[in-house]
Amino acid sequence: MAKSDTRINPQVERTHELMLDAAGSLLAGNGPEAVTHLRVGEEAGVARATVYRHWPNRADILLDLLRRGTSLDLVPLDGDVSLLERITGIVTAFAVALNGDRGRTLSAMIGLAEWDEDVFAALERMTHLGPRRLRDLLAAGSESGELDAGSDVDMLADQLIGALYLRRLLYHDELTDSYIDRLVSATLSPHLPV
Q1: Can you list the positions of beta strands (E) in the chain?
Q2: Which of 16, 24, 73, 107 has the highest CB neighbour count under 10 A?
Q3: Does the domain made of 3-55 have the CATH classification 1.10.520.10?
Q4: Is-above-0.85 flag for pTM?
């Protein structure tokens, strides 16, 4: 098969984005219960079967909404950037995602996950968007000596991500750069070598 044959058809990509826009509008206007294959199809002007071809269940639609536009790959992993700067970068990227529509989507998914196995599974798949990457950065910092060797990187990651979830998803506060700087500093400073 030629390499050009493996590309996604531009019409399929446009239809996918159109349906994702429709799902986002339904979520924003009516909550997660409105994001069904039937309603997304009606809103996007496509057949319900088309929606099912792209997403086998509602959780996958919500997960794609959550992933949309999220990129943590821009955060430098090493080089001339300090551990605090790397961690601040990834926490900031995660906060930006939570501040926008993805924060509302995540909040809806967390609520649904209690009763919907598909949504719970989708949230588990989503962990690579932030927490796992953050743990990897902290572990690399511990190995390089930028962080005390005895530091519990899982606990540190939980403290950083947990504070964001609490502030954004429970209190509905905007996650500011100032808050993130204070959070990263207060969390990591006790674990930096003297």
Answers
A1: none
A2: 24
A3: no
A4: no
